[in-house]
Amino acid sequence: MHAGYGGTLILKGVDLQLQQGQIGVIAGPNGAGKSTLLKSIFGLLTVHSGSIQLAGELITNVEPNVLVKRGMAFVPQEKNVFESLSVEENLQMGAYLRRDNYNHLLEKIYADFPPLAIKRKQPAGELSGGQRQMVAIARALMMEPRLILLDEPTAGLSPLFMEEIFAQILGINADGVSVLMVEQNARQALTIADQGFILTAGKNRYTDSGQHLLQNPEVAKSFLGG
Amino acid sequence: MNELVFFANKVVISGFAIGSVYAMGAIGVTLVFAILRFAHFAHGDLMTVGAFFAYALTVLFPTAGASLGLPTGFVMLPLAMAMTALFAMALDRLFYRKLRANGVKPVVMVMASIGVALMLQGLVRLFAGTASRSFFIAEHKEIFRIALPIEGITRKLVITEPQILLVVFSVLVVTVLHFFLTRSRFGKAMRAMSDNADLARVSGINTQTVVMMTWVISGALAAAAGVLLSLDVSLKPDMSFNLLLPIFAAAIVGGVGSPFGAIAGAYMVGFAETLAVFNWSVLLRPLAGWLPAWIEIPVKLAFVPTEYKLTVPFFILVVVLIWRPTGMFRGKVL
Question: CA distances (Å), A97 to each of A64, A65, B210, in order?
Fold first, then answer.
């Protein structure tokens, strides 16, 4: 796949595949195109050549709102909550395309993310970084997606919150949702990954299971800090 | 005491009436800014166009209101609002959407809206000339003179039927808008898009529909403001520029992007205007006995002559922007 912003090509031949129910982790140095890759998959950037498929259906350059209907969700790295809306309204916006009664799902999410239940009437902008990340992920879960794309879900979080977010991601995956995430904390992320992709200069250099990548001395030396 | 009734007539009632007009206009300006991120300078002309739609319908069916006991222009208001909403959507389709698709900077949108404003003013004059018109063709304007049951008060409280309709209608509109924005799925989507348009898109909100809804609401409110003001005073083809400036002042003073700020700002500007042009000598004269002899009460003592009323909103605007640059209700910083 080739994609980029306007005229500048950032992805120059990426090829990755994720099985239903797996966790995929995209790692690599800054500027490798990790975020660009996620945005391209979610139809936020133009894919110039190549193709993207979701469960066998072609979704290259399909509009995000169509992808949301097809069971895909995306959590951006920054500005990923509606700051002036309450936590509950954030979740309702996640469920914007649902026309059924989704109260049971709201309750499930409040059970899975207890801090959000307490702060459901508070504007999301007043929450701590870790709680905002929970709101962002919970918003994406409101459509009960098959695949969730996470762009650096632990960026800027303290180690304690990082653990919690990783635990939440494993929990989401245990519910049968496939996860494809970009992560700076590659070592930790690869330990939970079924598939790992190391991206450099717009291409995937290494593709293997998370465990194999962690054991690969070359990968460890160049990308995981020895 | 009679002087206080005079004050109520000139300041309180007029302030409420003009404040309501500004409120309906400022909500539209602030919504367009919240969703589309540009100052829509053709908003005053949406008001003129809306008022002329209602006027045309009134000319066609001059007696339609009689059976309902309401002014015909007011009976035509819902139709005029719908027509102006469509008109605003058409303007977006013809001009603004094309610019948005090219990803132009907000200042280009502002310039385009000034172009649209000039064009609409030309169109209005082309069809309707430059004369003032009255909405009351087959009827007459009802003016209520209410005698107050207090000893010693001979002056009557004066309020016109259009003023009552104006205040009642705007209170209704504001209430409906409040529930729409805070309770309805679509209203929340509007707030979400105003907060973070990219995330709204990622959430599956159809941003194109939200944009259309914004034009529908602000167009309809502009028509309501234009029609109700013209009913009270008269329909002037040049009313747009006289309204545009106070409306922008109201929206900015309240905090651009915040509908409730726009309402507060609108009444603030409305009352400031009526207070500034009020002849304070009227209230001072009864106190003449207590004042030292060397103070002579002038015949007319107002902060600003009526012709310079437009300076008042600007004065408030400057003061508020220095004191609190995001406006009273902390809108988006311009």
Answer: 12, 9, 14
